Amino acid sequence: MIIPALDVLENNIVRLYQGKYETAQFYPFNLAERLLEYQNAGAAKLHLVDLEGARDPSKKQWRTIQAATKALSVPFQVGGGIRSIDDVKQWLDAGAAQVVIGSMAVDKKQEVAAWIKACGADKFVIALDVNKTESGWSPATHGWLNDAKSDLFELLDFYVEQGVSDFLCTDISKDGTMTGPSFSLYEDITKHNSAIKVQASGGVSSLDDIARLAKQQVGGVILGKSLLEGVFSVEEALACYQNV
């Protein structure tokens, strides 16, 4: 599945480089219109990130994102600043098909497990964003500002046990760089558990990248900067993915 993504900061569409807020590149697109363009181009699912909320949960861009998604008929997943079950329910009530849980999924596993039990595992995408270290893949939290002590595969196993099958994994060194995805990360994940539907995110810069990810049988390919920069269209990405 091809999943177009839009990140929102200061109520505008933006892309960061390797998750660093000081690198923010703003785009002159209307959020609601851009989402509809992606939907009308054939995307079957969309991805939204509240970067303001991820950095400071007290500054969630709730109203902006809610208003922009009202006209959508395809499902969307949303993350950033989700810190409580009330936040989860707020997004689900607003029409989100799934909520994306990042930092909380690493730091407060038991609390998130309780949310999953209460709302249903199919309502959750667990986002595990990682740095490559000598010992393996190390998750980072809180807008990628802090390193976690947990191992990636331990976290994957924990949430699979809770019934979750949708995961979004980003190699932070690749995010926003358009230097190619972290193929080794997704290979390691699928080798660890082939039942996991991992959404590949970060670094996609060509249709060849999409084809290679499709061959790795990832559950989805998140496309952000490549679409904003017009490297290829949603239609071209969909055709490439489906023809592998």
TrEMBL record:
Catalysed reaction equations from the record: 1-(5-phospho-beta-D-ribosyl)-5-[(5-phospho-beta-D-ribosylamino)methylideneamino]imidazole-4-carboxamide = 5-[(5-phospho-1-deoxy-D-ribulos-1-ylimino)methylamino]-1-(5-phospho-beta-D-ribosyl)imidazole-4-carboxamide
Lineage top rank: taxon: Bacteria
Active site: 7, 129
Pathway, per record: Amino-acid biosynthesis; L-histidine biosynthesis; L-histidine from 5-phospho-alpha-D-ribose 1-diphosphate: step 4/9
Keywords: Amino-acid biosynthesis, Cytoplasm, Histidine biosynthesis, Isomerase
Predominant place of localization: cytoplasm
Compartments, record wording: Cytoplasm
Family, similarity comment: Belongs to the HisA/HisF family.
Protein name (record): 1-(5-phosphoribosyl)-5-[(5-phosphoribosylamino)methylideneamino] imidazole-4-carboxamide isomerase
Protein's organism: Pseudoalteromonas maricaloris
